[in-house]
Amino acid sequence: MSRKLFNVAVLLLAVVSVGLSGCAEMKAKPSQGTGFVPMEEMASRTDYPFNKIWVKAGVDWDKYKTIYIKDINTKYLMEAGWWQQNFRRQDMEQDTRNIARSMQEKLRTSFKNDPKRLYRVLDTPEPGSLTLELALTELVPSNPVMEAASLAAPYGSGVAIQLAARESGAKATVAFEARLVDSVTGELLFMAADREQGKVAPINLRALTWYGEADVIIDEWSEQFVQVANKHPGDVVKAASPFTLKPW
User: Fold this and answer.
1) What's the number of domains the chain is made of?
2) How buried is residue 61: exposed, middle or buried, by Cβ count under 10 Å (0-12/13-18/19+)?
3) Does residue 113 lie within any of the structural domains?
4) Which range marks the domain in which residue 32 is found?
5) For residue 6, which phi and psi values (nearest 5 degrees)?
6) CA angle 75–79–84, rounded 5-degree value
7) More confident residue, 246 or 159
8) Tens digit of pLDDT for each residue in 119-157?
């Protein structure tokens, strides 16, 4: 076997070993909640991709054909004190606004691009529509210095450095809390909350930017919200994998 093929084999073996160690241990710990939704009223469910879920029983979902995605709420994140210890604390307010705008647009785009076209995306709420209200409750940027160290490490050991970053709390994390209501009556129909962290990868170029990993997580959430909206009883919407072979 050539040296190049040997290195590739070692790299792949490292990723497989990470996967076999158990995805549950690699997944970010659920958030304690901020109060945007009552976490104690929700529960984990294996047929949904998020940490916590609540669905109102007996809802006639077929009567809803349109959805309005409200501006992402950042109030709860900015009122929390933890981010003031972050190494980007001077930029967090603007960072949060930028990510919130991007998150809203990604959700809108995912629903617009849904092949099933079950919900038309509205610019303003109207009778007979759903309104998705979502709060961005945690936003921790990547640490490019640590990630650069993992890139410089020999094949396989970069994965170990990324896992060490997770244990030390240096890994990028993002969390949301969400509720879905009838746009006119305000009736609460659905609640969800999730917290995710940057993926483990043999080569992780996303983490060389502050929010490259957050963008990937939000992309996955946007697709999952569409899958959940299209979900029928008995369907399973799987959570995203905590590791990847993709470098970006």
Assistant:
1) 1
2) middle
3) yes
4) 3-229
5) -65, -45
6) 125
7) 246
8) 999 999 999 999 999 999 999 887 644 344 343 444 444
